[in-house]
Design brief:
The structure is a single chain. With 580 residues, this protein is of the alpha/beta class. It is built from 20 helices and 16 strands. A hairpin with a 5-residue loop joins strand 12 and strand 13. The two termini are 45 Å apart.
Length: 580
């Protein structure tokens, strides 16, 4: 009997969370292959791997929000207090009691996910197995009945799978302002790498440091330096000057209901006019929350409003022309994210104290980094275009927390160039962030046709999260979003594979017939499709109700236009070709 194989490309948070769900959801024999190009990133990714996260790097959100399971909010805290092996932990954390609203070091999340994978493996149904593989996927092709994936290991080999899940994580943008110093001894491009952490911790206490970026990753670098006794000047530089909000000590995540910001549904009248309406609605909403919830800490009012507005934002975004939407996202994604997500005081307090009046060891510089170039005696010069004029900052060390690459036409990996060249994915048209997908996480070709044997998890879904769910900035692909992605994708993949058999996608064929039956306007056509369905092998293998439910999902796919939907369902006519 054929045992289906699912290949998950990427074993960071997104890939690991999805593998766990596959192990939980599968009822029939299934092989899950978890492919990771960097062994130290397995079950961790760049965000949580041990060598890139010293013990002072903590989650920006509270420990109680770090469970990998949406339905079991206390799982991580319970694991950290009662299951974790603390034998190698530092004294600072060895006897620490974790609470929902408190901090936790990021590096232990590597152990948590490792343990939860082992648990899911042990509790899986017979024949449902997880295989770990080291290597890099460099190309894939959809062939009859399977996906062929080229994997670079010692040599390039071909791995076949019935379904492939893309969980490749963040793609870093190469900073144009630093092209001449990327290999300079005083320049750190990857602060969460093993080498980046080593160099940060080896920085002389009196060194002058410039950090490009002012949000959470930049604060991690500053806090690491300060906690090891750094005394030299530190400059934090960014165009927006946005810094993280600090959560109250007893903060708990919550949701409130707010009326729709109705003025934002009016026709778009240009950037300036639109931003005026946004500001007016925003200030009114914040004032209403403050008045209606007098006991609420003022620091979380913006979080509550931003969350309450998310259901309304897709309707607002529909009215913004694409070019203007690109510009607004470019200019305001980081400030919007800072209103939606804060950081625990463990990280922010040490930085804010060093910024405070009377110390000034840490300076916030609002401006755009024009270029970083070699200076005298092995130092670097950082040239900043600021509102009050140009400025040059000499630095013994420059740490680049420059943003990820969100435009996948610029991603340089072999796999993504292959996917784009073969029209297996489409850059997200409305936002230029990530790729086009449907509500099940299936990538769409340029003509809107879903690539049924592929799924996507995590950061590559940013554009879709923005226009579908109103989430912006990092919140579009953070832990909360990934938990939801993993559930939807794993359930979809398991359902699809458990309806397949060794003779092909009989279930999909039956569903296609049911779609045509439902779409038929004439009784005689419907009767013909009824006969075909009654005699189709897929109808004998699967309940008619399951076939009908799947057909309804296809007919109500709102991720494509009605014309694209007809084409992908195979119900368009020759006449429609005259009206593209």
């Amino acid at each position: 009997m054929h045992r289906p194989r699912v290949l998950v490309i990427g074993a960071g948070l997104a890939g690991t969370a999805t593998a766990i769900r596959l192990l939980q959801f599968a009822r029939k024999p299934l092989e899950i292959v978890l492919l990771e190009r960097r062994h130290d990133y397995r079950y961790a990714g760049v965000a949580y791997h041990r060598d890139g996260n010293p013990w002072d790097h903590v989650f920006n959100i509270q420990a109680g929000r770090m469970s990998a399971f949406r339905e079991d909010v206390n799982d991580f805290v319970r694991w950290a207090n009662h299951e974790a092996d603390r034998s190698a932990w530092t004294p600072q954390w060895k006897d620490f009691t974790f609470v929902e609203h408190g901090p936790a070091p990021r590096r232990i999340y590597h152990d948590y996910l490792t343990d939860r994978v082992a648990q899911a493996r042990a509790e899986a149904y017979p024949g449902v197995e997880l295989t770990e593989m080291d290597g890099e996927a460099v190309a894939l092709g959809i062939e009859t009945g399977h996906v062929a994936v080229s994997v670079q290991r010692q040599n390039t080999e071909t791995l076949t799978a019935d379904h492939v899940i893309l969980a490749t994580g963040m793609e870093l943008k190469q900073p144009a302002f630093a092209t001449g110093v990327l290999d300079h001894d005083a320049f750190i491009r990857y602060p969460y790498s093993t080498d980046g952490v080593r160099r940060l911790t080896a920085t002389p206490p009196g060194a002058s440091v410039v950090i490009v970026g002012t949000v959470l990753s930049a604060y991690d670098s500053v806090a690491l330096l300060l906690r090891q006794g750094h005394t030299g000047p530190i400059h934090l530089v960014s165009k927006s000057g946005t810094t993280p909000r600090t959560y109250p000590e007893d903060h708990e995540h919550g949701v409130i209901q707010l009326p729709a910001p109705t003025s934002l549904f009016a026709p778009y009248g240009g950037r300036a006019e639109f931003l005026t309406r946004v500001r007016t609605e925003w200030e009114a909403a914040c004032a209403a929350v403050t008045a209606d919830h007098p006991g609420m800490d003022r620091r979380i009012v913006t979080e509550r409003v931003a969350k309450a507005w998310e259901p309304y934002l897709p309707r607002v975004i529909e009215r913004i022309p694409t070019d203007d939407l690109h510009a607004l996202l470019r200019d305001f994604s980081t400030p919007i994210a800072s209103l939606r997500v804060g950081a625990v005081s463990y990280t922010t307090s040490v930085v804010e104290e060093a910024m405070g009046a009377g110390r000034g060891q840490v300076e916030l510089v609002v401006g755009t980094v024009d270029r970083v170039e070699p200076g005298d005696s092995g130092r670097l010069r950082v040239r900043v275009a600021a509102p009050d004029g140009a400025r040059e900052i000499p630095a013994d060390l420059v740490v680049c927390n420059f943003a990820r690459e969100f435009d996948y036409t610029n991603v340089g990996s072999a796999l993504w160039m292959n996917l784009l060249a073969n029209n297996l994915v489409t850059p997200h048209q409305r936002t230029s962030r990530g790729i086009e997908i449907n509500q099940r996480g299936t990538p769409l070709r340029p003509d809107g046709e879903p690539v049924e044997r592929l799924s996507a998890i995590g950061v590559m879904r940013e554009g879709d999260e923005i226009v579908r769910n109103g989430r912006t900035g990092a919140f579009a692909f953070n832990l909360a979003a990934i938990k939801n992605h993993s559930i939807v994708v794993a359930a979809h993949v398991v359902e699809r594979l458990e309806h397949d058999d060794t003779h092909g996608d009989l279930f999909d064929e039956a569903v296609a017939l049911e779609v045509k039956r439902m779409a038929a306007r004439s009784r005689s056509e419907r009767e013909q499709y009824d006969v075909q369905l009654a005699n189709h092998p897929g109808s004998g293998l699967h309940p008619r109700a399951a076939i009908s439910q799947a057909a309804v999902r296809r007919l109500t796919d709102i991720s494509v236009t009605p014309r694209q939907l007809r084409r992908q369902l195979g119900i368009s006519t020759d006449e429609e070709a005259e009206y593209p």
